[in-house]
Design brief:
Chain A is built from ten helices and seven strands. By secondary structure, chain A is an alpha/beta fold. In chain A, strand 4 and strand 5 form a beta hairpin. Chain B contains five helices and five strands. In chain B, strands 2-1-3-4-5 form a five-stranded parallel β-sheet, with helices on both faces. In chain B, helix 4 links the parallel strand 4 and strand 5. The chains are: A alpha/beta (219), B alpha/beta (137).
């Protein structure tokens, strides 16, 4: 679990570090919008980004676009959240960050069916067809990926990883950033970094498949 | 004012994406016929044998057999086909893909958004623009 924490308050940072270390979470801390800008000039991979809504010189509206492919939660005081929830679509966590809120947000893989539901509407037949197509496509991708990892064929790895994106995107599984990152390092033939990430992608895709099956069974 | 009701050719191998595009086209009540080919090779075969050229090609880049860039390379060499407008519709943010595509005279490079409504707006805008534009054939 890799978490990026963006916060300008030194006391909140100390509290976060204590929590992250207790939960054995790998973390990076940034303190300002300029650090965020600099940090995202390179491709990055995080399972979760937690950012203070207000940083000293800016607010989340100014830098949220850097986090497009990530699972993001914004954090602020209860009073400020109350004034913000009706004006934004962001997910908020109340300060101070507690263990419960943190572990809830760090569940490894979740689905967000907003895209799928807007796409399908009330068309049950389309929903079933899309579930089946995505399940077949993701299962095939896992098999192919397992074969080509052994061959160390980076072109094919990149191709296959890229192909997984559409099924993942439609069902809103929070692993798009990991896939994009794997594509980048496959291109660089960075074997040492790539293979552990591919193992992670395969295991997360298996979880995603199970979650999609669960959703299908609910129909 | 609307100029054409020609076929839109979608070149895409991924079934999830094909279903998504078809669904969005239906939701937007776009009346142009939609024809799907699964890779560049099959698309070229279709185009060379088509009774009428499509008004627009929506092209994915990451495909087996003949990928999007290889397809564009071939398309631009064939006099009969070289002027068909092509919009790349991809999830690839790679700068090299963008350079290569624009080098081959594409009309637009669209990255599929993760938000459904943004994707729908994107398809609507592409369609509207090419409905209004004159074609060279």
């Amino acid at each position: 679990m890799r978490v990026l924490y963006i916060e300008d308050d030194s006391i909140d940072i100390i509290a976060f570090k204590r929590l992250a270390e207790k939960l054995n979470v790998e973390y990076t801390i940034l303190h300002s919008m300029s650090e965020v800008e600099e940090h995202f000039t390179k491709p990055r991979i995080y399972d979760l980004i937690i950012s203070d809504f207000y940083l000293n010189e800016s607010n989340a509206n100014d830098f949220i676009h850097y986090f497009n492919d990530f699972n993001v939660s914004l954090i602020s005081s209860k009073e400020k959240i109350n004034s913000l929830v009706n004006t934004t679509n962001f997910q908020f966590i109340e300060k101070p960050l507690n263990e419960n809120a943190f572990t809830n947000r760090t569940k490894i893989i979740t689905l967000d069916l907003t895209y799928f539901n807007e796409l399908a509407g009330d068309d049950m037949q389309f929903k079933i067809e899309m579930f089946d197509v995505a399940l077949k496509s993701l299962s095939e991708s896992i098999c192919k990926l397992q074969e080509i990892i052994i061959l160390k064929d980076f072109e094919k790895i990149k191709f296959e990883v890229h192909k997984m994106k559409s099924g993942i995107r439609v069902f809103g599984a929070n692993m798009i950033s990991e896939i994009s990152y794997a594509e980048c390092i496959a291109l660089e033939k960075n074997e040492k970094e790539l293979f552990p990430i591919l193992e992670n992608i395969i295991s997360n895709t298996k979880i995603t498949i199970d979650l999609i099956k669960e959703e299908k069974n609910k129909l | 004012m609307i100029q054409n009701n020609k076929t839109i050719l979608v070149i895409e191998d991924d079934m999830v994406d094909i279903m998504t595009i078809k669904r969005v086209v239906k939701q937007l009540e776009i009346t142009n016929p939609l024809h799907v080919e699964n890779n560049g090779e099959e698309a070229l075969h279709y185009l060379l044998n088509a009774e009428e050229l499509p008004g627009l090609i929506l092209l994915d880049l990451n495909m087996p057999k003949m990928n999007g860039i290889e397809f564009l390379n071939e398309l631009r060499k064939i006099n009969l086909l070289k002027n068909i407008p092509v919009v790349v519709l991809t999830t690839s943010k790679e700068q090299q893909d963008k350079y290569n595509s624009f080098d081959l005279s594409i009309s637009g490079y669209m990255i599929k958004p993760v938000d459904f409504n943004q994707f729908k707006d994107m398809v609507k805008t592409i369609h509207h623009y090419w409905q209004l534009s004159q074609l060279p054939y």
